[in-house]
Amino acid sequence: MTLNDLSRKVYELKKNKIGRIVEQRIKEFKEFKNKNNDAWFSELCFCILTANSSAKLGIRIQGKVGVEGFLTLSVEQLSQKLKELGHRFYNKRAEYIVKARKYKNIKEIIEKFSDEKDAREWLVKNIKGLGYKEASHFLRNVGFDNVAILDRHILKILHEYGLIDEIPKSLSRKKYLKIEKILEELARKTQLTLSKLDLFLWYMKTGEVLK
Which of 5, 90, 152, 160 is close enough to 82 for a disulfide, judged by CB 3.0 to 4.6 Å? Predict the structure, then answer.
């Protein structure tokens, strides 16, 4: 299988109801541009929670804890809450979220960047618990289009279609950016932004269109 094969598969999905679902989800992400710092901080916490976990669990915890909890619970209280809700790494994630409060004006910070890849570099450098994948996930969820979320589902598809030789056990910055270039080429071929392409590829592996 090749890049062209994967491109054709994505085109097929674009033309059916999945295409409409993806458009709706992207519209929801774009609406984050009108939301406040608190909403953006809640989304940042969601992305911290998804590292080595799942989007489904992150969504559940985000709904139960709420932005008020993310902003005000002590590290001990938040850790206990995450434990009760089933997160494996409840102590570390609670610690990361409490440390991230230093940047609770996250919307204002990110909107100062003219290039979203520069914004991603800032996130990786300053927000403990965010790697390139999680930083990209956050940026996509608040309405940006041109960063790739290299989670295990996406990497598996790229491997299945022969676009990467192996599924890496870890991703250095250099490796991440190299694989991102492959997705940029696929995005050009399918006439999609990276944000939309991610949702189609994720659907191919999971049968769902989440955030």
Answer: 90
**Residue pLDDT, tens place only, 146-181:** 999 999 999 999 999 999 999 998 899 999 999 999
CATH of 36-141, one of 3.30.420.10, 1.10.340.30, 2.60.40.10, 2.60.210.10: 1.10.340.30
Find out whether 195 and 185 touch, Cβ atoms under 8 Å.
no
Q: CA torsion, points 56, 58, 132, 121, in degrees to nearest 10? A: 140
Q: 133 an active-site residue?
A: yes
Annotated domain spans of the chain: 3-30+148-206, 36-141
Whether the predicted pLDDT of 1 surpasses 80: no
- Which one of 107, 133, 196, 198 is the catalytic residue? 133
Give, in words, the CATH class of 3-30+148-206. mainly alpha
107 contacts 37 by C-beta, under 8 angstroms? yes
pLDDT tens digit sequence for 87-108 = 999 999 999 999 999 999 999 9
